[in-house]
Amino acid sequence: MDFKLTKTQLLQQELFRKFAETEIKPIAKDMDEAEAYDMGLVAKLQKAGMFGIPYSREYGGQGADVLTYTLAMEEVSKVDASTGITLSVHTSLCCPCINEFGTEEQKQEFLRPLVDGTKVGCFGLTEPNAGTDASGVQTTADKDGDDYIINGTKIFTTNSGFADTFIVFALTDKSKGPKGMSAFILDKDMPGLTVGANIERMGIRAASNCEVAYENVRVPANRLLGKEGQGYKIAMTALGGGRIGIGAQSVGIAQGALNEALAYVKERKQGGKTINKYQNTQFKLAECQTKVDAARLMVWRAATAKDNHENYAPLAAMCKLFASEVANDVTRVCVQLLGGYGYCREYPVERAMRDAKITEIYEGTSEAMKMIISGAMKV
Question: Which domain holds residue 264?
Fold first, then answer.
């Protein structure tokens, strides 16, 4: 077992780090305060190929692996978790639905512009009454000649405020429950598709996260992904891979906060010496770094399993469960180490602590992760 990154991966990691430090970090606080994502940054992410990292060059992607994608997720999330989730939903949720279940025609028409930096995607599954229990989806897609008519409401649709392509899950046969769910590719300008205002949130405030209404949206049959009734499978497959990205985001949030805390304790003086000289501080930092490294290795294991086409779902659940807990634990410690300053918005550890909480909730709650893991154990 090799725990080392390749030379190519190390080079890419450094490029991701430089991009994050020069392009994202200087505006991260302002975006959080404004609760709006900078569209100029979206354009820079697209131009840098950040939205197509693990996708084939055949479709305009970067041709890298999932592990390399997790390196990008960690680096951007160190400085801004909102950018992390913007990248994750596009790359881990929207694109895989088309890449893994789309026809060749659909890949050329819809996947290519998503991974070559032309368009941004989002993923519409969650509804006001269907969160962790995705089988509770009520949005419908009724057949009408060669089209489907979609009606319903989705909530917490990340990227929806500026996305071009929407993956939407709806019931084509309500009598079959989740087995009657299907997946569709929609465009933002389709009549009847309405994106609401950004939902005010505790963390990841710069990310676009809106309610989306679908009122008699007419969708051509050639925009059906896979077959009728495969929607639930498509959604769960995407979420399984998406959890690796959230694990990497969690690692990034924790490492970023820890880096800030480490710099602070080397400068802050109490009792006549900098507080990094106190063993209590040293031990707290040591414990935090150990947890972060353990979480990172779990993310890498899950990513490598996906790259090797192994059964990665339980490993993805494990890395998300553990890494999200680490992100919350470590950011709390970092705020404490900065004392009163840690509670002030002047320092980024406050934002990191707010951002960390959602990692235990979206793309499957920690409780849902435990169900997946225990199921794989055949408990």
Answer: 233-376
Give 317's contacts (C-beta < 8 A, 6+ positions apart): 240, 243, 364, 369, 372, 373, 376
pLDDT digits (tens, 9 = 90+) for 314-368: 999 999 999 999 999 999 999 999 999 999 999 999 999 999 999 999 999 999 9
Same domain, 293 and 333: yes
DSSP letters of 237-255? HHHHHHHHHHHHHHHHHHH
pTM for this prediction? 0.97
* pLDDT for res 133: 83
**Is 100 found in the same domain as 133?**
no
201 occurs within a structural domain: yes
Q: Would you state the pLDDT for residue 349?
A: 98
CATH number, domain of 197, equals 2.40.110.10
Q: Provide CB contacts within 8 A for 198, sequence distance 6+.
A: 35, 36, 161, 208, 209, 210
Helix runs in 266-278, H state only:
none
Residues lower than pLDDT 70 in the chain? 1
Are residues 102 and 202 located together in one domain of the fold?
no
Contact 283, 339 (CB under 8 A): no
Q: Round to whole Å and give the CA distance between 371 and 379.
A: 10
Q: Catalytic residue numbers?
A: 363
Distance CA(101)–CA(224), nearest Å, equals 10
- What phi-psi label fits residue 61: left (phi over 0), alpha (psi between -120 and 50 degrees) or beta? beta
